[in-house]
Amino acid sequence: MSTDNGTQPQPELPQDKAEEKSKDPSLSAIAENNNDSSVPDPRLEVQSGVVRDGEYVILAFGDGRKFFAQCQTRARGKSTPVKIHKRSYHTWQLVGLKYGKVLELGQSGLVPLPDGEEVIPSNPYIAENAVATVAATAATDDSKGGADVAVAEDNEMEDTTFPPIQQDNDNRHLLMGDKSQAMDQDDLRQLREEGAHGSEIVEALIENSSSFKNKTEFSKAKYILRKQKKYQPRCRMVRCTAYTICEALYIKDSRKLMNMREDTLGQILSYSNVSAGCQALVFENCMGIVTGAVAERMGGYGRILSVYTGQQPAFVEMLSRFNLTFAQSHSIKWLHSGDVFMEDNTEAPPPPADAIDTELEEREQLKWPCPLQEHTRQYMQTMAKDKQKKDFLAKRCNRFARKLTRHTTLEVNQMLAERKCDSVIIVTRTDPTATLLGLLPYLAPSGPFVVYCEFIEPLTECFLEMQRRSLAINLRLSDTWMREYQVLPGRTHPNMNISQSGGFILTGIKLCPVTGKNELDEELMKEIRSEIGGRRGRKPKKKENPSNEKDSNMPKKKRRR
């Protein structure tokens, strides 16, 4: 069905949704843009393929290390340097580069390399030596002739995915020590002062090594790779996402993340059924990784009620590394734990209707653009440069913009009281049982909840308590195990040093406190256990055949010894 002007009619919103949209100034502005077909929805904007001013990127090195870097131009007056290998590098030259670009750490800073370059640079000696080895092997086969050629023809159908490498040398006669290298630290320091490139230093080390020629091909490759990582370091610019941020922080210090790997974070988002338009209640002590991941997945549609402890949220700086848009960051609403948790594990009462919201009154008194006060004008007259005045006005505009778009505490509490949350996510270091029981009243019936903990014992108690009170169904306590494999020609094996566990997850679906009923009672569980054999290792009991009842009534014969 279409209207007279050929456009599709807009669906009518329910009464509660219409009131909700009218209360939120940002949602009403976006709604006006959506009604106008000429103005695109800003939340559907495609991510840029190049680095923008002020965005965070991850510099991933070949040895597995990852560094966060904020890219800022010189025009902003302050270029945040990133410290790598005990040296600071400016990031203004990274603005405008494509994601995935390979950079090299040079004397002048981070130097972008041409397309096609890899993080691990190729060495011409290794390439020529490999070609020479294959050529020598082929020449040896041709010189044999006769029956050997026929045997080679018969073996053409064999698997040649990983051809064998002929080793002419071995390491049995190598004497490792300082005498095998003719160059010392003074020579290397002189090459660096002269401005020699990293590849030149690596070539000089190879030429002055007396034991390099007697090594095997694998030993040569490992030697060159080790020297390239030290004197010719390279990195790749990676976009900051929930996956890459969690991976980088886990490599740096996994204890701050409660040993939560990136695959565990993906399972938390999947089990909680986070999607656009939902309202999620998040309580975490995990540096804001879960809150940022939920905001990134929702894309600005919906709400995220993030509960914090203390005077203010402790992980606002970490959320800036997600490079969230205005709609995504505005969808995060902050709630203090004192306004949520009650002593009797019930819902917090809604704020009284006659409550005076001083923050709302202050926000309504603000005007945009905000006029300058007399003391502000006098302070700006003391500034000598126009650049200082522009920076001061930019900070002032940003501060007032945050005040105009930020929800007050009473407004957020009203949001929590008016609508039940679609999912609850808990990632805490404290007792998960008390936390879940305190947040469960705010979850809608049939809504999923996810509780993550580093250890299994607290979750076991929470599992038994939920099962005893019959508050949820589909309770499941699980852990994940992930192993990374090295896949190279002829050298495929798992990594030797891996994490033992990525934490434990408790999932379930809330039952309605009025009409909900857990049919899996103790008697039904005993019946199921008897059918499947009870405990592990015991065989199920065989039922007696009714046709053999007569035989069972007959007297049993005594056995002869």
TrEMBL record:
Which GO terms are recorded in the biological process aspect for this UniProt protein? tRNA methylation
Alphabetized InterPro entries for the sequence: SAM-dependent_MTases_sf, TRM6
Q: Which domain of life is it from?
A: Eukaryota
Q: Which Pfam families match?
A: Gcd10p
Mainly resides where? nucleus
Name the residue ranges with Basic and acidic residues bias.
Answer: 14-24, 543-554
Enumerate composition-biased segments (Polar residues): 1-10
In residue numbers, the region (Disordered) covers 1-43, 528-561
Q: What is this protein called?
A: tRNA (adenine(58)-N(1))-methyltransferase non-catalytic subunit TRM6
